[in-house]
Amino acid sequence: MNKKMMNNYAKLVVTRGINLQKGQDVIIRASTQQVEFARCLVDASYKAKARKVTVEFEDEAISKMKFKNESLQTLSKVETFEEEKQKYMTETLPCTIIVEDEDPDYLNGVDTAKMAKARQAKYPILKPYIDARDNRYQWVIVAMPSLAWAKKIFTDCSDEEAMKKLEEAIIHCTRLEGDPIANWDKHVKLMEAKARKLNRYHFDKLTYTASNGTNLTLGLNPKHVWLSASEKTLQGTEFIANMPTEEIFTMPDKYRVDGVVYSSKPLSYQGNLIEDFSIRFKKGKAVKVKAKVGQKSLEEMISMDEAAAYLGEVALVPFNSPINETGIMFYNTLFDENACCHLALGMGFKNNFKAYEKMKEEDFEAANYNDSMIHVDFMIGTEDLKIVGTTHDSKEIVVFENGVWKI
Question: 3-144 belongs to which CATH class?
């Protein structure tokens, strides 16, 4: 990516992604391969009057060594300095920029069961801080190309050609051509209009059918609200959490999901691929999972905690989305979840409740909020997917037909 494009990208991320306000702190998380882009993000942040910018670099090879060589006991411990960092972030609420370029296969050979157990051990200690920051700070996930990621997608290309193709795909899907800020302002307005329309219907349930076998009835939480690209913190600052994003999303009713749903794209989960899988739900819970590839990973995922087997999100994305039209399987959830309709196992988003800012913790529990340590999106959209919405007065409205919007 040339320097001009990179600077425009960084400006977009800072001014529209996190929507940095004067005097706020920024944390940038990126791999060691993205030093140049990190510099652009730092520069854009200071130009937008950030008080302090911190960059945290990560390296996949080092992370893999850590997971393979450290004991479960060591991996499971939250060190004092780590907890102090969580306290600091909860007090200062820095805006967070995450730059993704992950090799989808980088954790091959790692004991994922050990990783899962370590995460389960640490989560109760970290959860109070995570909850305290929820909906109180701006964050965004964006992407940059890496060679390992590019070669996973474009297997028959040279290194240079694969990198160029992935770069072009990221530029296109993230609307970086021309005036990125104007592009995103227009995109956000269109998505917000669609979310308002869905909120006016206030459906009681959605019914999904497709020729691959999907036949799912999904109840929506009585207090649900559809959201789209732009969200707001409790302090009222707008931000865009995912760039790219094509989804209109809300909260299912935790205990009213029944039937079976089939994946339409592979899922990259903790560095491993889960492919050609199905999930059967009964009274909200995933009671049976089956995958041609990654069965163990899928089983581990839904057993991370009690709520991991329930849905936390339902998202509508047309099959003709700009991402899907590239014809690329990205092996990256940021892109693949925005290619077509998807669901998410685990944690729901509290801001998908109407007037969530007035709710207390006991109110969320009473409203059947799904509180989990995981949130894993998986893709279910197909070119023949039909979704019918049923209103509270039993009217049926076709929401999607042949994989695209009908309303």
Answer: alpha beta
